[in-house]
Amino acid sequence: MISKYLYFPGCKIPSFLPQYDHSTRAVLTVFDIELDDSELNCCGYPVRHRHMTAAVFSAARILALAAQKRLPIMTPCKCCYGNLKYADHWLRNNVELRRQVNNLLQSEDLVWTEGVTVRHLLSALAEDVGVEKLRTAVVKSLSGIKVAAHYGCHALRPGNVTQFDNPLAPTIFENLIEATGATAVEWPLRLECCGHPVWEKNGQLSLTLMTRKLVDAQAGGADLLATACTYCQMQFDAVRKEHLDGGQMIESLPAVLYPQLLGLSLGISRSELGLDENYIRWEI
Residue 19 — φ and ψ, nearest 5°? Predict the structure, then answer.
């Protein structure tokens, strides 16, 4: 079992979703997992479609620092996870890109090398802690609660690069949900986009995509939606609260971050998990 990670929360969590950080730290503490909080730069995802070398260089610097510290990386953000995995893939398979990036890293006496483990929070919990260990640590079973697992896009695809789970039929999230005692429901749109990537370009399309997913999850019998992605949680919580019309679509099916859900089953308080920082409240 890994006992320490280089922790990479990404850019959005500290400012826009601090409860994701708080709940992540709280649940990992239960399993005696230490986080190295070294200051790190952006993962490079925001510039990936503008300047590939810049995006890979940003991620490579984080990978090189992890190698220097001899630590695996863990991030709760699926966009950051995806870009770190993309960068590692490109660097292993593109000799010229690798040469360019390592030339840039030389100014800090850093070098990208193969072999740094990159985990998303969910894969760290499933693979490094283990679902059975999570289950045995539960002190407050969430039995009777029906949960729709929203996977998000960036960790799943392409599967040969991200290596998160089967991109067409993943089970990791449902297994982690059921470790808390809750029931993971089946719903046809579980793997579709939440709509947040187009929010600032086409707000109406973004809201339509989100609403379709909410309706589908409700039809599947879910009491709440579980997320494990910074942007998906912002979409289903903050954006929904501010921009969808009131009524049942706002008040029902609250979005909860997975470590908040897990934390409750581990006996951690609502305040420590930041549950009351969510825009749409979930009472249990």
Answer: -65, -25
Distance between CA atoms of 249 and 124, rounded to whole angstroms?
33
Q: At 241, which amino acid appears?
A: K
**Residue whose structure tokens are 């952006």:** 42
- Digit-coded pLDDT (tens) for 39-68: 999 999 999 889 999 999 999 999 999 999
What is residue 262's DSSP assignment? H
Q: How far is CA 272 from CA 29, 143, 232, 246, in A?
A: 12, 22, 21, 29
Amino acid identity at 184: A
Domain 4-120 = CATH 1.20.1050.140: yes
Q: Name the residue among 264, 269, 259, 262 with its Cα closest to residue 19.
A: 259
3 state DSSP class of 4:
strand
For the structural domain made of 137-277, what CATH number should be given?
A: 3.40.50.11810
